[in-house]
Amino acid sequence: ALWAGGLLALLAHALRAGGGSDGPDTALAARRFSALALWCFVAMAISGVLNALVRIQLPDLVHTSYGWLLVAKVLATGFRIDPQLRSLRDVAVFVAVDHCSAECVGIHAARLAAVAEGEAVVIFGAGPIGLSAAVAARCRGAGRIVLVEPVPERREIAREMGFESIDTASNPVHEVRRLTDGGTDVAFEAAGDPQAMAWTIAAVRPGGRAAIIGIPAEDTIPFDIHAMRRSELIVYNCRRSNRTLAEAIETLAGPGADMTRICTHRFPVAECGRAFDLVSRRADGIVKAMLMLD
Question: What integer pLDDT is reported at residue 101 of this predicted model?
């Protein structure tokens, strides 16, 4: 009944449009009818299969024409639903690729800083890149991993992902040094903020390593050169990623790299202005925004 009603409505719409069949309104009506027809077919097929399974014996699937018809109906239903499943799969792949791009940067930073098993790590900034660096450090066997972040929602996501997180409100360097018995082995700056860069240098123990990932707005950033000199601190500059895609794919497929919490907001392309505004202000608890290509 739904199928027949939809077909009649489509014909009536075409006649009302003057008999034309190539206008945008008619095309839209045709697409809607096609979707309606698809799901009517699926609903009838599923109900028919369920009804048949109650009435038919398993050998009859092979030895009777009704059994052949039932098998054909199941296969046809699968072929009709498959495009919908492919659409869902494409969305999942799109999200996974987006996670992979961030993790590539985290892996590159962890490689540069040569994070080793059991080492203490601090990361200033719990955005997508900071959390990706934390995941990369954990996958390399790091011990204590602490993220420093002013946004409460980002700290909560870091904790949900299994990391320690502290606020920047008081004295984060003092707190990091307290938690790590005098300083971390490795520190990452992933905020692009001059203050975070100064904290990164100050949080590392003598002989440790620091990696600057964030991109500041300023062209020149002052550092406490004497603190760096006295500690014989090694500083790396990380520019995006470098041949880390294969490792990122393998990492994300493993048990310790659940990145699903990082993507907190999704927007259609038409709302890209709102997405960029929220990200720039770090508002609404946003960590990572995705523009979905419908």
Answer: 80
Backbone angles phi, psi at 287, to 5 degrees: -110, -60
Where would I find the H helices in 140-287?
152-160, 172-179, 194-202, 225-230, 245-252, 272-281
Q: Are 168 and 151 within 8 A, CB to CB? A: no
CB atoms within 10 A of CB 1: 6
Distance from C-alpha of 154 to C-alpha of 88, rounded to nearest angstrom: 28
- Cα dist. 58→44, 54, 145 in Å? 21, 10, 57
Strand, coil or helix: what is 222? coil
What are the angstrom distances between the C-alpha of 156 and each of 65, 139, 150, 166, 192? 60, 21, 11, 10, 21
What is the model's pLDDT at position 133?
Answer: 96
Count H helices and E strands in the chain, helices first: 11, 8
Strand locations in the chain, DSSP E? 121-124, 145-148, 164-166, 184-189, 204-212, 234-237, 263-268, 288-292
CA 87 to chain centre: 17
pLDDT tens digit sequence for 44-79: 656 655 655 556 666 665 666 656 565 665 565 555
Residue 146 has a pLDDT of 98
The list of the chain residues with pLDDT below 50 reads 19-24, 80-82, 84-89, 91, 94
